[in-house]
Design a protein that fits this description.
Layout (H helix, E strand, L loop, with lengths): L1 H11 L2 H44 L9 H15 L13 H8 L5 H11 L1 E4 L16 E4 H8 L2 H13 L8
Helix pairs in contact: 2-5, 3-4, 3-5, 4-7
Length: 175
Protein backbone atom coordinates (compact mmCIF):
# COMPACT_ATOMS: atom_id res chain seq x y z
CA UNK A 1 0.00 0.00 0.00
CA UNK A 2 2.79 2.35 0.85
CA UNK A 3 4.36 1.75 -2.57
CA UNK A 4 1.21 2.74 -4.41
CA UNK A 5 0.98 6.03 -2.51
CA UNK A 6 4.62 6.76 -3.38
CA UNK A 7 3.95 5.99 -7.03
CA UNK A 8 0.91 8.25 -7.01
CA UNK A 9 2.91 11.12 -5.52
CA UNK A 10 5.71 10.64 -8.05
CA UNK A 11 3.27 10.64 -10.95
CA UNK A 12 1.87 13.97 -9.77
CA UNK A 13 5.29 15.69 -9.99
CA UNK A 14 5.61 17.96 -13.01
CA UNK A 15 9.11 17.09 -14.18
CA UNK A 16 9.39 20.01 -16.62
CA UNK A 17 8.39 22.51 -13.95
CA UNK A 18 10.77 20.96 -11.41
CA UNK A 19 13.64 20.99 -13.92
CA UNK A 20 12.91 24.61 -14.70
CA UNK A 21 13.03 25.57 -11.00
CA UNK A 22 16.22 23.61 -10.35
CA UNK A 23 17.85 25.09 -13.48
CA UNK A 24 16.82 28.59 -12.44
CA UNK A 25 18.19 28.07 -8.96
CA UNK A 26 21.50 26.79 -10.37
CA UNK A 27 21.68 29.74 -12.74
CA UNK A 28 21.15 32.18 -9.85
CA UNK A 29 23.86 30.47 -7.79
CA UNK A 30 26.33 30.62 -10.70
CA UNK A 31 25.46 34.25 -11.37
CA UNK A 32 25.96 35.09 -7.68
CA UNK A 33 29.39 33.39 -7.63
CA UNK A 34 30.55 35.15 -10.82
CA UNK A 35 29.46 38.58 -9.55
CA UNK A 36 31.08 37.91 -6.16
CA UNK A 37 34.37 36.96 -7.85
CA UNK A 38 34.28 40.11 -10.00
CA UNK A 39 33.67 42.29 -6.93
CA UNK A 40 36.56 40.65 -5.04
CA UNK A 41 38.88 41.14 -8.01
CA UNK A 42 37.84 44.76 -8.37
CA UNK A 43 38.42 45.44 -4.66
CA UNK A 44 41.85 43.76 -4.81
CA UNK A 45 42.84 45.79 -7.87
CA UNK A 46 41.70 49.01 -6.17
CA UNK A 47 43.64 48.12 -3.01
CA UNK A 48 46.78 47.37 -5.05
CA UNK A 49 46.39 50.59 -7.03
CA UNK A 50 45.98 52.59 -3.81
CA UNK A 51 49.10 50.95 -2.36
CA UNK A 52 51.19 51.73 -5.44
CA UNK A 53 49.93 55.33 -5.44
CA UNK A 54 50.90 55.65 -1.76
CA UNK A 55 54.37 54.25 -2.48
CA UNK A 56 54.77 56.57 -5.47
CA UNK A 57 53.73 59.61 -3.44
CA UNK A 58 56.20 58.81 -0.66
CA UNK A 59 59.26 58.58 -2.94
CA UNK A 60 61.77 61.34 -2.27
CA UNK A 61 63.16 62.07 -5.74
CA UNK A 62 66.42 63.50 -4.41
CA UNK A 63 67.15 60.17 -2.68
CA UNK A 64 66.94 58.12 -5.89
CA UNK A 65 70.19 56.55 -7.03
CA UNK A 66 69.22 55.52 -10.55
CA UNK A 67 67.23 56.77 -13.52
CA UNK A 68 63.84 55.40 -14.62
CA UNK A 69 65.32 53.02 -17.22
CA UNK A 70 67.63 51.44 -14.63
CA UNK A 71 64.74 50.81 -12.24
CA UNK A 72 62.77 49.29 -15.13
CA UNK A 73 65.72 47.03 -15.93
CA UNK A 74 65.93 45.93 -12.28
CA UNK A 75 62.18 45.27 -12.15
CA UNK A 76 62.39 43.22 -15.36
CA UNK A 77 65.31 41.30 -13.88
CA UNK A 78 63.35 40.53 -10.71
CA UNK A 79 60.40 39.31 -12.75
CA UNK A 80 62.72 36.99 -14.64
CA UNK A 81 64.32 35.72 -11.41
CA UNK A 82 60.92 35.07 -9.82
CA UNK A 83 59.89 33.00 -12.84
CA UNK A 84 63.14 31.06 -13.23
CA UNK A 85 62.24 27.39 -13.22
CA UNK A 86 65.47 26.33 -14.93
CA UNK A 87 68.67 25.04 -13.37
CA UNK A 88 69.64 28.45 -11.99
CA UNK A 89 66.39 28.58 -10.01
CA UNK A 90 66.20 26.83 -6.69
CA UNK A 91 63.82 24.00 -5.88
CA UNK A 92 61.09 26.60 -5.41
CA UNK A 93 61.61 28.02 -8.90
CA UNK A 94 63.17 31.34 -7.91
CA UNK A 95 66.68 32.41 -8.82
CA UNK A 96 67.52 33.67 -5.33
CA UNK A 97 71.02 34.80 -6.26
CA UNK A 98 69.59 37.00 -9.00
CA UNK A 99 67.11 38.53 -6.54
CA UNK A 100 69.96 39.19 -4.09
CA UNK A 101 72.01 40.89 -6.80
CA UNK A 102 69.16 43.29 -7.58
CA UNK A 103 68.63 44.02 -3.89
CA UNK A 104 72.35 44.80 -3.47
CA UNK A 105 71.79 47.75 -5.81
CA UNK A 106 69.28 49.37 -3.41
CA UNK A 107 71.01 52.26 -1.60
CA UNK A 108 68.03 54.05 -0.02
CA UNK A 109 64.40 53.56 0.97
CA UNK A 110 63.52 55.71 -2.05
CA UNK A 111 65.30 53.18 -4.30
CA UNK A 112 63.19 50.32 -2.88
CA UNK A 113 60.00 52.36 -3.12
CA UNK A 114 60.79 53.32 -6.73
CA UNK A 115 61.50 49.68 -7.55
CA UNK A 116 58.15 48.69 -6.02
CA UNK A 117 56.44 51.40 -8.04
CA UNK A 118 58.12 50.47 -11.32
CA UNK A 119 57.59 46.74 -10.71
CA UNK A 120 53.85 47.35 -10.37
CA UNK A 121 52.02 44.04 -10.73
CA UNK A 122 53.68 41.27 -12.70
CA UNK A 123 52.84 37.63 -13.34
CA UNK A 124 54.63 34.80 -11.59
CA UNK A 125 53.96 31.21 -10.63
CA UNK A 126 54.13 30.13 -7.01
CA UNK A 127 55.55 26.67 -7.54
CA UNK A 128 56.73 26.17 -3.97
CA UNK A 129 54.36 23.22 -3.54
CA UNK A 130 54.51 21.77 -7.07
CA UNK A 131 58.25 22.16 -7.64
CA UNK A 132 59.90 22.99 -10.97
CA UNK A 133 58.93 19.67 -12.59
CA UNK A 134 55.24 20.58 -12.40
CA UNK A 135 55.58 24.33 -12.98
CA UNK A 136 53.49 24.05 -16.14
CA UNK A 137 50.49 22.97 -14.06
CA UNK A 138 50.58 26.01 -11.77
CA UNK A 139 48.45 29.01 -12.69
CA UNK A 140 50.14 32.42 -12.96
CA UNK A 141 49.09 35.19 -10.61
CA UNK A 142 49.91 38.90 -10.65
CA UNK A 143 52.04 40.01 -7.71
CA UNK A 144 53.25 43.39 -6.53
CA UNK A 145 56.89 43.29 -5.43
CA UNK A 146 56.26 43.02 -1.65
CA UNK A 147 53.74 40.23 -2.28
CA UNK A 148 56.15 38.44 -4.64
CA UNK A 149 58.89 38.64 -2.01
CA UNK A 150 56.50 37.25 0.60
CA UNK A 151 54.92 34.48 -1.48
CA UNK A 152 57.73 33.38 -3.79
CA UNK A 153 60.73 33.47 -1.44
CA UNK A 154 61.22 31.25 1.58
CA UNK A 155 61.54 32.84 5.03
CA UNK A 156 65.32 32.34 4.89
CA UNK A 157 65.60 33.95 1.45
CA UNK A 158 63.47 36.92 2.53
CA UNK A 159 65.66 37.26 5.65
CA UNK A 160 68.75 37.37 3.39
CA UNK A 161 67.09 40.08 1.22
CA UNK A 162 66.37 42.14 4.35
CA UNK A 163 69.96 41.65 5.58
CA UNK A 164 71.27 42.92 2.24
CA UNK A 165 69.03 45.99 2.50
CA UNK A 166 70.17 46.63 6.10
CA UNK A 167 73.84 46.31 5.08
CA UNK A 168 73.18 49.02 2.47
CA UNK A 169 71.68 51.35 5.08
CA UNK A 170 68.12 50.78 3.87
CA UNK A 171 65.50 50.55 6.64
CA UNK A 172 62.71 49.20 4.38
CA UNK A 173 62.11 45.51 5.05
CA UNK A 174 60.02 42.90 3.22
CA UNK A 175 57.66 40.88 5.43
Amino acid sequence: MNNTKTLELISKIDIKKTAMYVGGALLLIILFLVVRKMIKKSKAEKRDEDYLNLVNESIVASDLTYNEVEYQTMANSLEQHFNDTGLSGGWFGVNQKGVYEVMKQMKSNADVQKLIDVYGKRPAKDISIAGPMFAGLVKEKDYMLPEAMSKLLTNGERKKVNEILTENGVTFQFN
